[in-house]
Amino acid sequence: MLGPRMTGKTFLLRRRQPALFIDLLDPETELSFSRSPVMFWEKLQALHKKDLVIVDEVQRVPVLLDYVQKGIEEIGLKFILSGSSARKLRRRSANLLGGRALDLGLYPLTHVEIGKNFDLEMALAYGTLPHVVTTFLEGKEDDVRRQLKAYGTIYIKEEVQAEALTRNVSAFQRFLSVAAQMNAETIEFASLARDSSVPMSTVKEYFSILEDTLLGDFLWPWDRSERKKARPKFYFFDCGVVRSLQNRLVDPPTPQEKVFLFETFFYNELKRLRDYHERPYEFSFWREGKQEIDILVTGPRGPIMAFECKTSLETVSDATRSAFRKRFPKVPLFIASSKEIHPRKLDHDVMVLPWRQAVDTFLA
To answer: Which residue from 4, 97, 101, 292 has the highest number of Cβ atoms inside 10 Å of its Cβ?
Structure first.
């Protein structure tokens, strides 16, 4: 079970009743198993068939995965393994338990999980990390800002420095600040490299660190000829975290900020609900010349629906609607609106939907 920091992995795991709980966030525990991994196997041998074993932050001592496999095959134990990064596992050729484990993700809270207390303005300004939501609902907005401000510091210290993901931490910090400013916008790698004062190859490596540590992911153009131009978008995983990295927590989001924040929120909401509902969908964006649609949803047989995100009552231009309909005659196009209360139907069979209804349409 992989998920970014502060999404509640440890909280959920501690509610279970395992026969053995290994917390590798504890420095002494991590050091102990790093020095003598066989001690983990010795603990497993003292258990019984079908006993549950939980290993939290397993990427810190990847060699334990070899003993996890032995525990499954030789003893019949059940395991839950959690982590906030798969980078060390992949880079060290760790045993990823192919065919023996389910790969699950845990994300910040969805609007469904928050329920009646969900507030879109709060989600855009501060995100939906569980502890952030709880603190906000308690009326402690200053504490929310402190928590989010500390997120970047903790991330740099515990993910980047502690995991030795890059030697030049100061250069990575410069990159992270610039990358946050480009959230939900088309990435020009050469331009970002100049602004970060690092080579373009390093920028691409740093983005791979963000992906591997689950801080965000790329959204690529649907058209493969467009992909060759290497101009994707990058979405951070949480609006509150990205605003913290942008150093914009003090003031409410401006209308211009909300354009990108709402797009970030909506994309992440679809991604989380897709994974939780186990839908076989992939996401991209459509771009053809000057025309662009934010999110194109593709199923096993091709594109099945598309969404454009809007924070005002304006709609997609007639030229964009016409170009999209010409390219995808039968693919429904929806405008997910943060302002609309009721649906509207436009020319070219385009529907304007309140954002909640847009999400419901995606899951239907």
So the answer is: 4
